[in-house]
Design goal:
3 domains, single chain
Length: about 525
């Protein structure tokens, strides 16, 4: 095997046993072995004849053999000629197979390494490419420009400059494409066919070329749809293999428990064994229909074309500019995503929203979680805010909630987008829930532009809104408590708080604070 593989295979990527290139030499070598077996008998007979005629020799042959060696029998000559022809044919076939495909066209990849256990990683990569392709669709780009960039959350927390916002989105999409292409490069390096190795060199040249290819634009979406069908089947395989593992574990446990029990108790074990056998057949069937049994070279060939297509789509969707990445990085140190606070601040906003809904019966544990989660900058500013709370104009509970809802209406949405984006990142099996088949109707809800999250939100602006919400939440809690206590007194208004002394107000605020430092500051 080393004779056929050492020339073109790397140490990290041994050739597959199913390779058609290796199947051919195996058949030919069987023919050679057969010829050798027949040759041994003929050679023995020829030797006996030669020894019988040796006495008739006039010595000329002996002199020749002393200079050049004994002449080879004709059978051995034929056998060696066949071996040489086989090796020549193999060498020319191997070389022609590498040179015959000099372009990255879909459907032309030679059968090579079976994907096997890599199917789940490949499915995850395909799902990422599908999400990126879908985000670049005409409907999503219109939604981005007409809804997302014009939303109050993006305008208040990120920027009001539409051109700057589009530059940020363009840079995001190029980063997503780069990450997708890097995974394709990794799979290409695991192929047997060396032409798929080092695809990063091909992609580096591709990124500098934005020439449109009509045929590629027509075929790439259909190719992606076909891959996503395989992804869905691979998702089913993923779940069924998980169930099979649990089934086998349960069977082994029951098998140990049945040892030493009466024979009639083994009927249940036979039923479980039969169900386990059925599950194995189902898994085997799914392997044949999914990415598991596909050629890695074939899938990589399609993914290369999809990388090319996505590059063209990004270039056509967003105006080529060198300022998009610079615009994003110029103030990145002020943004929540760059300092790792986007998800934390999103959780704080979600917690405030929950407390507003439960203000009449707020759990102490939830309230404490909010205050302990506040960053130091908000805690320090909260002291001065709470000291001036008695100077606020008295409002009803309804009016206070209305003031809170004005901000929460758009801030909660951007917080929810942040949580969905960050928590789904890297989740095992997440690719199984992407927009395929019946799930495609909800694909827009599952795909979130990073710019409609807190990732690019200005830190100072976000902290200001959170601080105001916390102060309003304190005011709402105090009003709830005052109404509850005053409702027990005669002639009390159920909708407006009773006006008390400033010391009473401060006492109410102190009771809502879990932080002793804040209590002492009041």
């Amino acid at each position: 095997m080393g004779l056929f593989c050492s020339k073109n295979s790397s140490a990290d990527d041994p050739p597959s046993r199913n390779s058609p290139i290796l199947d051919e030499p195996c058949a030919e070598m069987k023919s050679i072995e057969k010829t050798r077996a027949e040759g041994r008998t003929t050679e023995k007979h020829s030797s006996e004849v030669a020894r019988g005629n040796e006495s008739k020799s006039n010595g000329t042959g002996s002199t020749a053999s002393g200079k050049k060696g004994m002449p080879l029998p004709k059978v051995l000559d034929v056998r060696l000629e066949k071996a040489v022809d086989v090796l020549d044919n193999l060498g020319s076939g191997w070389t022609s197979s590498l040179n015959s495909r000099n372009s990255f066209q879909m459907g032309l990849a030679a059968k090579g390494k079976t994907i096997s256990i890599l199917a789940f990683e490949v499915a995850n990569t395909i799902a990422k490419g599908s999400n990126l392709m879908q985000s670049l669709s005409r409907e999503n780009i219109e939604y981005l420009k007409d809804v997302v960039l014009e939303s109050e959350g993006v305008q208040c927390l990120i920027s009001r400059d539409i051109k700057e916002l589009l530059g940020i989105v363009a840079a995001d999409k190029r980063e997503e494409l780069k990450a997708f292409a890097e995974e394709v490069v990794r799979f290409g390096n695991q192929c047997i066919d060396p032409q798929w190795h080092n695809l990063d060199r091909y992609f580096s040249k591709l990124y500098s070329d934005s020439i449109s290819q009509k045929k590629l634009k027509e075929e790439a979406p259909g190719a992606m749809q076909h891959l996503m069908t395989l992804v869905q089947t691979t998702a089913d395989l993923y779940n069924e293999m998980y169930d099979l593992g649990k089934f086998e574990h349960y069977y082994q446990q029951r098998l140990k428990e049945q040892i030493g029990l009466p024979v009639h108790r083994g009927d249940e074990l036979q039923v479980i064994k039969q169900e386990l056998k059925t599950q194995k057949k189902h898994v085997k069937s799914l392997k044949k229909k999914s990415l598991w049994s596909k050629s890695l070279e074939e899938i990589v060939a399609t993914l290369v074309d999809i990388v090319h297509f996505l590059h063209l789509e990004i270039c056509e969707t967003f105006e080529p500019t060198d300022q998009d990445i610079n615009a994003r990085n110029s103030w990145s140190h002020q943004r929540l995503g760059s300092v790792g606070l986007a998800l934390h601040y999103a959780n704080i906003i979600s917690l405030i929203d929950i407390l507003v809904l439960q203000s009449s019966s707020m759990p102490k544990s939830t309230r404490d979680a909010l205050y302990h989660g506040l960053p130091p900058s908000i805690k320090s500013a909260l002291r001065a805010k709470l000291q001036s709370i008695e100077a606020k104009e008295e409002l009803t509970i309804t009016q206070t909630k209305a003031e809170i809802e004005k901000t929460l209406m758009w801030l909660v949405q951007i917080a929810n987008n942040t949580i969905r984006l960050y928590q789904s990142f890297g989740r095992i099996g997440e690719w199984a829930n992407t927009g395929t088949g019946t799930n495609r109707a909800t694909a827009r809800q599952s795909n979130v532009f990073k710019i409609e999250t807190l990732h690019y939100a200005d830190r100072a602006k976000t902290e200001t809104y959170i601080l105001d919400l916390v102060v309003w939440l304190h005011q709402l809690i105090i009003q709830r408590r005052v109404v509850y206590r005053s409702s027990k007194a005669p002639n009390a208004s159920p909708t407006s708080p009773a006006k008390g002394s400033s010391s009473f107000q401060i006492k109410e605020v102190q009771e809502t604070l879990p932080d002793d430092n804040l209590k002492r500051s009041l």
